Structures are given as C-alpha cells and as structure tokens.
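re: ur question from the group chat, yeah i did fold both. here u go
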Amino acid sequence: MRILIWHGWLLEGSGSNVVTARTAEAWRAAGHDVALVCQERHPERYPWIDADGLVDADGPGEPTERRQRPAGSGRCVLLRPLIGPMLPVFVVDRYEGFDDVRRFPDLSDAELERYLRANVEALRAAVAWHGSEIVVTGHAIPGAAIARRALGAGRYVAKIHGSDLEYAVRLQDRYRELAREGLGGARAVIGAANEVLERCAGFVPEMRDLGRVVAPGVDVGAFRRRPRADALIDVADRLAVDPDTARGRPADTDALVERALEARDASVLAELAGTYDQAVPEPEAAERLRALAAGDAPIVGYLGKLIPQKGVELALCAHQGMAHDAAMLVVGFGSHREWLAALANALRRGDRAALTWLRDVGGMPIGDARPAVDGPHREVMFAGRLDHRYAPDALAAMDVMVVPSILHEAFGMVAAEAAAAGALPIVARHSGLAEVAAALESTVGRAGMFSFEPGDGSIDRLTTSIDRLLALPSEERDELSAGVSAFVGREWTWERTAERILAAW
C-alpha cells in the first residue's frame, strides 16, 4: 500500500512525535511505501528513512536518496513542507529552523490561515506525487482540517492526541470550528483511549460514531528488562563519548539557580533555561548515572517533558517525603528545568519560605509541600534529555517510574514504555492514563497498585503509592515487573498499532 502520514512537527520529544515515527517505521518494515510529511530536519538520524526532500504547492521535486533499500522491503520518504518562518505549537519549546514559535491560541486569524494554506498546498502536492492510497493526519487541529481542505471528505483518517484538545480546541471557538470541519469529514477518527475519544466528542459531537480506539505501541526490542547496574553503566559509557553533551546544561548553573532562589528572582530562573541547549544530555549525566549504578538504594524516576503540565513537582515533593530511602532520577528537558532545580534545592535544604515562594510566584502546584526535616534529605539527579538511544536503558534502571501529569493525557505512552522495561509505573488516575493503569493493574490482579488519585493532597497519595511498591519484597516486585513487561509485549506493539490504523481505514 502507498500510505501518507501528515504530522506538523518532529519525530522525537513528545508522544505524538514518537507515535508518528514508530508507525511510519512499522509500515515500512511491513513492506508499504510510506510518505512521511512533517517538519523533521534530521532524517539522517532515522535509518528507516530512505529519502527526503522539501515540498510546497509545486511538489517535492526529486528527494535525496539516503540509503539502498534491501530487496523486497518497504520505503519511506520524508517530505518537509515549506511553511515559512513561523511554527505554531501546543506547548512552546525550541524548534531548529524556526525563530518564531507560538502557541496556536496566540496566532492571529491571518497567521493561522497562512499556515493552513501552506500545509494544504504541500499535502495536496505530496499526495499527487506519491499516489497515496491511504492518508492519515495528526491532531484534531490542524491536521484533520488540512486534509479536509486538501483532499475532501472521506479521504483521510484523523488521529487525535489530547494536546490538540486541551491547548487549542478547549480554549477558542475558532479551533472548535476547525476541529468540526476536519473531524466531521474524516473516514475515521483514531484516539489512543476511550476517554480521549469521548472528550473529543464533547467538542465535536459529529465525530462520535467515527471514533476508533488504537493504542500506541512500544518498541519491545529496545524497551526491555535489564539488570540495573548493566543498564546504567551502558548508558553512562555511551554518554561519555557523546559530543552533544558539551552543549548541555553546565554544572555551575546549579550555583546560579541557588543564588536566584535566595534572591527570589524569577526572571533569572527563566533566563537560565535559555543559556544552553536543552535538547541534549547534560555534561555530567554519565558521572551521575555511574554514581547511581554504584549504589544499592531503589531508584524512583521520571522521564518526559519538564514543563508545568507534567506535574514533575509532585514527584520531587513525594520523593522527599517517602519513608523509604531512594534515589531520584529525572530525565527530560523543557522550560521548567531551572524551576525544578530550585524546588529540589528548597526541599533538600528544608527551606519552607522558598517553597512558599515557588508555589505563589512560580505557580508550582505543590500545595503545602513539606521538606522531610526529620529524615534524610535525598539528592535528585537530573540527566537532561535522553533520546531513543538512551531512554530504554534509563527506564530499565528504575524501580518505580512516576507519571504525575496534571492535565489530561490521551494515553501515557511513557508508562507503557516503563512497564515494558520492567519499571513499575505509578500514574495519575485520570484521562487516558487511568486506562493504561487499569490495564496493567488488571493483568497482575492488583487494583490501584499503579495509580494515585489526582487533585488536592495528591503529593501524599503519590508518596504512599511509591512507598507501597518499595515495601514489597524484591521477589514480589520482580514478579510484578515481569508481568507488566510481558503484557506490553503482547498487547502494545507498534506492529499492532500500524495494523489497527489500516483497519480503521
């Protein structure tokens, strides 16, 4: 089959990015001819991308061939639409090649229309050039509307992800109308869980009968159980020779954060986040992981974006309040990195006044979080961004991995990846996360074991959940780890995801 998938952004760094990349890879592996239309600027990082080029209203020209295809294999061509200097997003971050990155709600009507028109023209040209038989587009907005305008009704399957609903459709009438336009004309509307489809139908009732649940997958060949020390040392050895770490967060930034916290200077914390490359591992990551490998305390971890919506603050506060001694490993990048460093500093020092300032001025949802003044002040280790080369082993090294997101999630793919790698997940019991937790809890017969109730008092409940897992005998934890890992390997694979999308068509 000739399959085209449109996605507005990159192939790493967020759940929808990863879903797009892994689905395209699975289709290619199954022998399909795939056109991947997105803004990824480094196709050389993906060995399954065979060629790449630019595309606009005049078509893609002749893509650059990157590798020889094995006989009988599929093919994937990446086409990057020429959309101009401005990139609309749901959550502001840095994007290579774009000096103007803005939230969808902040666009003028004229800017939105220019962005949509450029993508409509590029998609129409790409489909004509590729001869696409199946078209799949990402997000309620803008992908579905772009496909409707480019191809007409009934010519595409639309995927929704959750960020589109929470950061655009919920906020403005014009995006609800755009979602109605796109989703109402789709052949099917795919969501990762029943909850996100129902949430979408609340905004766009016309799509209710079109909804199909297609869970994301996990690369079970990469995300697998491993002995903790082996996993950590392997990652540390590879990070030690990774030249990209030189661009990461300098160690002396911690001293600058401490001074800013003492001075109660929010502007400095915001500025520090822009003084280094957040998209790479931190220079000291290898040393920190080796230190973890040398210890025998359990590791509680977080992997994901360091932004307010992900609730990383809850994990840091819960870690300090635990009854069990445990290390904390935070893997990720984002605009909130320095605020989280300041929070870890305040918790470690038992500085209640600083905690109050971080809550009131920084907007951190930490309630009346209390430092563990009568117990050990545990260090928190930040690693920076660890991409697909490193993340599987980082997760395999964790005993417990928390997903404390505050806002709705379509699924919670990182929880499934953690489970595949043998880390026992604990997720906030809401949105698609609740469905992931329920599936994992059911497979091991432990209701409520892998989730906690969000809302007021959630820090104490998260603390209790982590302590409950760490209190289990090691043999019992190992049995639970094997159980959830096996479940993911059976039920949540990218091959199954790719097949189910085609079935929805």
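okk and heres the other one u asked abt
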Amino acid sequence: MCYAAHDAMKPSPVIDSNEGAPDEIVSAPNFRARKQQAIREIIWDSAIDLFVQNGYDETTVDDVAQAAGISQRSFFRYFTTKGDVMAYALLTYGDQLIAAIDGCPETYTVSEVFRETVIRVAQEALTHPRTRKVFEILKKSPAAAAAEMSRLGEVQGLVAKAFLKLLPESPECEFAAGLLAGITLQIAGVSVRWCFEHGEQEILAAIDQALKTLENVLCGSRQAGERPDGKSSKGSKARER
C-alpha cells in the first residue's frame, strides 16, 4: 500500500460575536474536529518515527505517547492500540482514494476515474517522506503488516461506495464497485513499492505497466511477466523457451 499523511490543521475561522449563535455552533465543532485531527497526526508521525528507529514490536504505547508529548490516557482518546496507529496509514490511504474519485470530472468514464485515481494517489505517495517509512515498517514486522491489514475490509468498502456512485444501481454493479476498489487499492501500492525498490521516480510508467500486466495475466498473454521497465522477468523468459 501507499500512504501520505493528511494536511496539517488549517487556521480556524474567526467567530464574529455580532453574527449570532448559529455560526458559533457550527464553528466550534469544526475547530474541535481539526484540533483532534492535528493531534492524531502528531501521534501517528511520532509512532512512525519510533517504529522505524526502534522497531514496531519493540515500541510501546507509552513510548509513542511520550514522543508525541501526551499522556498515555490521552493516547487512548485517539487510538485504541498500537496496532490501531499502524492501521491509520491504511485509513489515510483510503481517504485519499475516495477524495480522488470524488474529485474527478463528471464527464469521466469509470475507466478514466479509475486510472486518474490510481495515478494521483500514487504520485502523492511516491513524493511523501512518510510513505517509504511505512513500507520499511511493514517489510520488517509481520505484526505491523497484520495490524494494518485489519482495516482493509473497512477501507475497501468505503472506496467501493465511492465507485458505486458512478454506476447504475444493481447487484452486478455493487460487485463491480467492490472489485474496482480492491484493484485500485493494490495497483497504486504495488507501483509505488516497485519504484522505491528500483530507485525509479517515474510512477506513470510503473502504473501503465502494472495495468498492462494485469490485462495480460487475465488474457493469458505470455508477456505477463514483463517488468515495469520493459524487461522480461526470468520466469517469463523460461516460459517462452
């Protein structure tokens, strides 16, 4: 998967006492929500740094709370466990995909929305400093990977709902939306991971090749083993002999 943290908390709106109670009622919850989001991001940033430096399994909730400058009691107001902190990366990823889907022009076909969403989110993830750190943590710790994947069904369901708004109402389309959500979640993550592992910065080529490879696999093409850089893998060469 690939992930980037949410934007930092923006300045709260100024409440004019002359404008009356309705605006105050609306503004106060908005301010609290932004404040809570900002604290959640601080905890997550602190946790990711500790997971990289000391290891996910070795880091405790108390360690994360101290690094974030809060009490352990305050930590549990925002996250239920250390694993919940790790899963936050996946939840953020899902939010980014949904925002990208919703942000596409209404004139786009479902296929165009799918491709634009994958490209936009993957490009953001590739350039975000936290993404590489998350991949490092997941690679080193099976427990961290399991914690993250514990929210996969939830995230995939939310992304599927975003796709479903583009489709007619029918059981077949519900299935299609779920399938699109699953593929979208994986294609962007696989492409970004490949770029990191091979020192590549051009995400478009990796995504195009990933989609081509998926199509070739489903169609039974012998070119399914081709790498994103255009070279054939050893396995594909062996099958061609």
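fwiw on the second one: The chain has a mean pLDDT of 82. Residues 23-79 form a domain with the Arc Repressor Mutant, subunit A fold (CATH 1.10.10.60). idk if thats what u expected
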